[in-house]
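Ticket #4471: structure export looks truncated?
Reporter: QA, pipeline team
Priority: medium

Steps to reproduce: submit the single chain below to the structure queue and open the exported record.
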Amino acid sequence: MAKVNISLDAELVVEVMVLAGVGSPQDAVEAVVRDYIARGHRTEARTGLTDQSLREVEVKPRESEG
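Actual output as written to the record:
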């Protein structure tokens, strides 16, 4: 599985850790992302709308914005 490194505001991550009851920043961010994806799937199931073309995107790292 591919890994992605990002920078986040520390206060934001700590708040998610407290709300989610997890002990590491990695687990906190993964919990939020998994919840967001699950919510999207539930919405798609209810509405019957699935935009598969949005999921079929070639993933490329962005060039440095400098």
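Status: closed, not a bug. The export was complete when the record was re-opened. Leaving a note from the reviewer for reference: The chain has a mean pLDDT of 83.
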